[in-house]
Amino acid sequence: MKDVYITRIAKFLPNDPVDNDGMEEKLGILDGKTSKARRIVLRNNRIKTRYYALDDKGKVTHNNAQLTKEAIELLCDDDFKIQDIQLLSCGTSSPDQILPSHAAMVHGFLKNGNMEINSVSGACCSGMNALKYGYLSVKAGQIERAVCAGSERSSTWLKSEVYEDEIEHLKELNGNPILSFNKEFLRWMLSDGSGAVLLEPDPKGKTPLKIEWMEGYSYAFELEACMYAGGDKEENGHLRPWSEFPANDWSKKSVFAVKQDTRLLGEYILEKGVNSLKLTYEKYGIGPDDVDYYLPHISSYYFKDGLYNEMKRQGIEMPLNKWFLNLENVGNAGAASIYMMLEELVQSGKLKKGDKILLHVPESARFSYTYAYLTVS
């Protein structure tokens, strides 16, 4: 088995940063009224700026596959060209279409010749699972140059026009066109962007990062869906998929809007996250003392103190001086967020040879968690 190193890393953030006051201008106002939920959500998540693949008039500037292509091209130069990629592995929760797959569409924009592709579906963990496919492929010696990426283009899922038919339908039913909080919540949480890495079996580059191991857990066997799109949740907790709705209900019920069961989120996301972290520590014989930089993907600063306190409660407290976060400035870009955090850490100049980095990515869709442990080589 080969060693595997992250030898190059890049991120792409579309257009100019959007501050809190500019969000509704970009995404649109619902029923002509400024959102009350926006103020509540932003106060809790404490995100100050984020990025959208939309211009000043709300017109789309990049689709998801184009965002991914941009990050991948930033990996390339005279020493590593896009034609040198042997495997392309991409993860996202917001693909541009159901078929063809996301990685196939990215490959179509790269136009770099024949290679293996892999598309990973899911939510935030899809970016990490794309990385794991590349990691295992290089480790097995099947290929020597794998590019892995995580990306999101959530903005078009959050635009006011997605909800217009439902609002009109609510007016007709009861005259009260107020969206449920689980639908509006994520409008003020999600953003666009992409990140990519190059994996190779040798420690090349200025700051090569050896992937020591990757680990994943799912709690779907005991918990119902918490974040979902393309369906609606029934009273018994089951998801009814879009394909079982009459077509004229798709817009009336905002079936394709991304939704969050905030009750489940608050009840389980931290407890299961720390439980899976504890299992990971036990499996690999490490603990907080064996980590120099801890990169947790959190969707909101609201969860930072809660995560720390839950770690403390379960006896695996991670000192706050080891945490590295960038949520405040780039927002929550789902599958791309961990790539963006790692890229910023590498570019910060803080890393030194021998430093240990722990990546921790939760996914609230149905409560999955993925980890990676890296060594600066």
TrEMBL record:
Organism superkingdom: Bacteria
Coiled-coil spans in chain: none
UniProt cross-references to Gene3D superfamilies, sorted A to Z: 3.40.47.10
Tagged with keyword Acyltransferase: yes
Molecular-function annotations in GO: acyltransferase activity
Protein name as catalogued: StlD/DarB family beta-ketosynthase
Keywords: Acyltransferase, Transferase
UniProt keyword annotation of Transferase present: yes
PANTHER family in the cross-refs: 3-OXOACYL-[ACYL-CARRIER-PROTEIN] SYNTHASE 3 (PTHR34069), BETA-KETOACYL-[ACYL-CARRIER-PROTEIN] SYNTHASE III (PTHR34069:SF2)
A Pfam short name: ACP_syn_III_C
Beta-ketoacyl-[acyl-carrier-protein] synthase III C-terminal domain residues: 282-359
Organism annotation: Ulvibacterium marinum
A GO BP entry: secondary metabolite biosynthetic process
NCBIfam families associated with the record: PRK06816.1 (NF005293)
